[in-house]
Amino acid sequence: MGAPTVLVLLAICALSYVGRICGQEVVNTGTTISLNNIHYYLPAKPFSSGHASVYTNCVSPSKNSGLGLVPVTVINSNATVLNLEALETIVNGFTEQDDVWGEAFLSALIPQGPYLIASTGDLYQPYRLYADDSGAFTQPLGPFDAALGVFTALPATVPGIAAPGIAVPSRLYYTKTPSKPLAGVRTGIKDIYDIAGVQTSNGNRAFYDLYPPRNATALPVQRLIDAGAILVGKMKTSQFANGEVATADWVDYHEPFNPRGDGYQDTSSSSSGPGSGIGSYPWLDLTLGSDTGGSVRGPSQVQGVFGNRPTRGLVPLTNTMPLAPELDTAGFL
Q1: Taking residues 103-108, what's their average pLDDT?
Q2: In angstroms, rounded to a whole number, what is the distance separating the alpha carbons of residues 102 and 118?
């Protein structure tokens, strides 16, 4: 046995020993890709598993990216013949309706929305990554894990300065129904509401570090999920939902930026993250805040958005941080 062979065996044994000592496990948390200069996040689990022949039959060798992934588009049509004119009408509708889909996904056509097909035949749903330039979010969320019944923190980001990536799915995947009136509605959640699988900060770093991921979801949030809403992240709040003024009172986290004026106006009250986010981002549809003494009404006013403080007690605030239970209520921005 030559010296190189001995060295290789020693290296393998050393790695095996270190692996046993450290007890480490390599876990696939998904990947990020760039397609036509737009950043996407792909979950670790495929949306659908197929046979490798699907890949070879649908995709020409010239379309192979070298990564074993090819963008494709799924189209639903009632037409008996899908001619070029009908296809163009559908594609134009996609462009007007959705911000995740792009012409790059026309590499192949298979039933509705953008996908990436792997050489194994697996289909992946891409999530477009947006930068949180206004600093409205505390924690981006990954796709809901139906098997475990929990969410996870999003393990992806985009190039930029202190701007985490927020992943949003295509609107084309969802159809609103009487039982799912919020199907596909991209929703941000104020970080006083527990979400199963992720930690809650209540605007305080020590609280976030002290307590483990929650094992139950706050009822107001669960009601949104049951109605079809898509949770994209938890959003900033002042410490323990107390009213704070920029920048004197914001210590653990920087106050979000107000999209109005020069961007440096105060975002007002504890639902400042939801107010800033819904005012800043056209790709965000709805945010859930809370109102005790004006924490929905204040941010909505100063950021020029609609705010609704419903009747107190309309939805029980289980698994939600209390401020003044006699006045606390969930509210939308």
Answers
A1: 67
A2: 18
Residue 81 token pair:
């013949």
Q: Which two tokens stand for residue 314?
A: 């309309």
The listed range with the strongest mean pLDDT (76-90, 180-194, 310-324) is 180-194
- Contact (Cβ atoms closer than 8 angstroms) between residue 307 and residue 301: yes
- Quote the CA–CA distance of 214 and 168 in Å, as a whole number: 23
Is residue 231 within 8 A of residue 143, CB to CB? The reply is no
Which of 65, 67, 172 is closest to 128 using CA atoms? 172
Cα–Cα distance measured from residue 156 to residue 165, given in angstroms and rounded to the nearest whole number: 6
Please classify residue 115 by burial: count the beta carbons closer than 10 Å to its beta carbon, then call 0-12 exposed, 13-18 middle and 19+ buried.
Answer: buried
Q: How far apart are CA 62 and CA 196, in angstroms?
A: 44
Q: Cα dihedral angle (192, 195, 201, 206), rounded to 10 degrees?
A: 140
- Nearest one of 96, 164, 111, 114 to 135, comparing CA atoms: 164
Chain centre to alpha carbon of residue 20: 35
Tokens of 103: 């012409």
Average model confidence (pLDDT) for the chain?
80
Cα–Cα distance between 198 and 213 in angstroms, integer? 4
pLDDT at 20 over 60: no
> Nearest CA to 318 among 198, 218, 214, 194?
218
> In 43-82, which positions are buried (b, 16+ CB within 10 angstroms) versus exposed (e)?
beebbeebeeebbeebbeeeeeeeeebbbbbbbeeeeeee
CA-based nearest residue to 42, from 75, 76, 70: 70
Q: Which two tokens stand for residue 153?
A: 């923190």
